[in-house]
Design goal:
By secondary structure, this protein is of the alpha/beta class. It has helices at 19-35, 57-60, 67-75, 155-163, 186-201, 249-258, 267-281, 283-289, and strands at residues 4-11, 40-42, 80-89, 93-102, 105-111, 136-137, 143-146, 168-172, 205-208, 211-214, 217-220, 224-226, 232-235, 241-248. It has one domain (4-259): Carbon-nitrogen hydrolase (Nitrilase/N-carbamoyl-D-aminoacid amidohydrolase, 4-Layer Sandwich). It contains 8 helices and 14 strands. A 6-stranded mixed sheet has the order 5-4-3-2-1-14. Helix 1 (19-35) packs parallel to helix 3. The longest helix has 17 residues, at 19-35. Keywords: Hydrolase.
Length: 291
Amino acid sequence: MSQTLTVAAAQFASHIGDPDANFGEHHVWVAEARKAEADVLVFPELSLAGHYGAERLLDITMKRNDPRLLALSRAAGETILVVGFIEEGPAAQFYNAAGVYKGGRCIYLHRKINLPSYGKLIETKYYAQGRFVDTHAISEDWRLGLLICADLWNPALVHLAFLHGATLLVSPISSGVEAVGEAFDNPAGWAATMHFYSMMYGAPSVMANRVGPEEDLTFWGGSRILGPFGEPLAVAGTEPELIAATVDYAEVRRARALLPTVRDSNMGLVEREMNRLIDRLGVPDIIRDDG
């Protein structure tokens, strides 16, 4: 893979709790991405389940090496896929997961860490919490930092991904207009969030959202690909659409030379202060303060 990378995002409406129908939809978008010669194709959060797919939890979970997932990856050829599904992990634990697939294999998997339970979002009812922030190298220069939706609303998780060496931020999301409340403008909020992270860390980013109504939520699309200075390279509308753009590692180098956020992160200070907080606010202290 060269210094340049063609990344794509597919936004569409998933069938709620119907993986077979959703696999058919995924194959259509995979074919479109291959026509666009995409190196990486990102699907929305829970793209194989639907936002409310967990209401049929035991019927639609799958293991990361489910034959249907591997067949989808083989159909993609050399294109790397980032696919959202409800993963059944060891000991019957169920996760909101995004798997990274290439050549018929699962090469990496992220389990959502920041599970929202506010507004109209009730993910803690269904999913176990992911416990790790990591990254995955897809070439010598390009390393995926993969975080799912509300993970990005905890800036510490994004910071950790970049400290782990991410040079491309990949963000499958499921954002409905009404999810949090009328006082919050989700489309504007996501635009600002993705701009901030790309600009701050000198890294391209790709966000893939779903579209259309699903029960009591309206999904607004707005999938986007940004360059390492925070500039939008491709932005989708509100209908089903594939967007694609080419990013260049030379621009990552230039952005990070001008604004060395990763270089200047003082990990020793952060570790010291976190340990100091734990010592000050730890369980024994809280118990003692409560009498």
